[in-house]
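Subject: Phosphoribosyltransferase

B.,
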Amino acid sequence: MTIMQNDADFAVRLAGGDLAVDAERWDLPLRFLCGFASRRNPKRPFLFVSRVLGRHLPVHPQVMRMAHRRLGAKLDSSLPGPVVVVGMAETAVCLGQGVHESWRLMSHRDDLLFIHSTRYKLRHPLLSTFEESHSHATSHLLYQPADPIDVELFADCRTLVLVDDEASTGATFVALSHACRTQMPKLERIVCVTITDWMGVRKHAEIRAEMPARTDFVSLLEGSYRFLPSDAPPPVMPDVTGNGSCKDHLLTRNFGRLGLRKSVPLPESALAIRAKVGERILVLGTGEFVYPPFQLARRLSAMGADVRVQATTRSPIMEGNDIHGVIEFEDAYEDGIPNFIYSVRPGQYDRVLVCYETPPSTVQTPLVKLLGAEPVFFSDAKV
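Prediction pasted inline below.
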């Protein structure tokens, strides 16, 4: 239920209370950028649901690309290098790489490295861990880049760019920056990049005081929020933390966890997919694997198809407000935990492509059958 709405302010009644936001500066309208929903999480029962991210809601790939480019254009091309861009798992993996790729193409710099945090253990040198205290899955891992040259670049980093879909307290940025700082003795600058920034001026000042280097904030919208909890019983959060086993046998290619200078080319399995003009296609990423599916969606859109991008997630959200429909199924990483897709109905699209970085043995058969989908595997395919 909407309580009130105008160009800058919005208030909504959620399952656990009332959320009000005040937009103070924006490049694009509030309701173009995000909606709102209730999380099945007693630590934070509300959610800013991005309309340009391609995660919880289906988004046209051109809209996602526009958001990447707008944020990339806000990064100063003269920031001291080398620069490391870190995307936050799982929600901002695609956003982080999209910002990195857009900025790389705009700035023509070759000293930019993208890497993303992950929830999955690998038999690979670990640089640091940090906690996202309010999350449904709190622990993040950050691995050493695979290429020795990139290991040196990471260690020589002078500017750290941290990318997340939204910021409300800034605590995750503080935790991640200190985790990285231990491996970056030359660090001078930090830039926190988000689609929507709800921290407000006072919180910005507090966060700057806690950061280990000079810090700036970049977003498409800045504002503040207030949440008034109700006396409703707190939601029960499912266990979505995973079993902690090593996933090397599943994650055989580096799509960003071990550092990339530029995006990985699409494999033949994806390049072989053709689309008809006007065909309604949903391209689904799985978990932390979203940027290559986004690339595939852009390719199909260029063929004239009406394409949307979305991704499965371990984030538990209630139906209602801007979430219309919940489909639950098991994850594709052998954790045996529930995953979800939101606001998708069987028969809504002419074609659904579920994209996997994991082997064919991990295909989520109930999801594929329900949506009449085609699995597309990127892991061991030729490029």
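The chain has nine helices and 19 strands.

T.
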